[in-house]
Amino acid sequence: MALIEIQNLHASVDGKEILKGVDLVIEPGTVHALMGPNGTGKSTLSNIISGRPGYQVTEGRILLNGEDIADMEPDQRANAGIFLAFQYPVEIPGVASSTFLKAAINAKRRFQGLGEIDAMEFLKLVKGKAKELGIRDDMLKRPVNVGFSGGEKKRADILQMALLQPQFAILDETDSGLDIDALRVVSEGVNSLRTADRSFLVITHYQRLLSYIVPDVVHVFAGGKIVRSGGPELAEELEAKGYADYVSAA
């Protein structure tokens, strides 16, 4: 059974159609890359999968492990195993990063019928994962993303993903604004989470991220739908030739 199956998905925002018949099947344990120019609907697709309000699905279905998730709230989708790393992570003034992470872990534990995580167990867990991602202890004490650099925000997102252990993770232009060192650290964090039953959808404009997170399948997104799919070599072709042919065809 496919982990994620999207069938003829159409969606609009404020009456304007953005997605125009998206079909996508993601098997367990695979990494799919979604590449395309700005304004084609890539982020719209990620937001709809994760359940962000403001989008109207007019046709089609999204299945997670064979179950239609159309009626699930965003928190229900998260607890079911979907995770979205934002292109622009939001700031939460007044809430320490460690407090936020502990609340997220406990929310998932409640969904699983477990008690809250022990304070010492949490500290050991979060500090261990933070060290792997090059996150300093003082960063965990700061308000969520407030005053963080671009690289720190993306590391914080990957830390949250590492702690929540989702079944399906969407990385929406995680490489945006990262220098080479930060890109390498974030990519290593993602690669460390690759397992036989966890899948990723990596959304990006550029091939450089896919040199670090090597995908199994690459899709070209243009005109609100997937217009071509192939192996990792397709990303190199797009880097060399651009998207002009696909945009004009769409």
UniProtKB/TrEMBL annotation:
Highest taxon listed in the record's lineage: Bacteria
Record domain ABC transporter: where: 4-248
Protein name: Fe-S cluster assembly ATP-binding protein
InterPro entries cross-referenced by the UniProt entry: AAA+_ATPase (IPR003593), ABC_transporter-like_ATP-bd (IPR003439), ABC_transporter-like_CS (IPR017871), FeS-cluster_ATPase_SufC (IPR010230), P-loop_NTPase (IPR027417)
Family (UniProt): Belongs to the ABC transporter superfamily. Ycf16 family.
GO molecular function list: ATP binding; ATP hydrolysis activity
Organism of provenance: Insolitispirillum peregrinum
Sorted UniProt keywords: ATP-binding, Nucleotide-binding
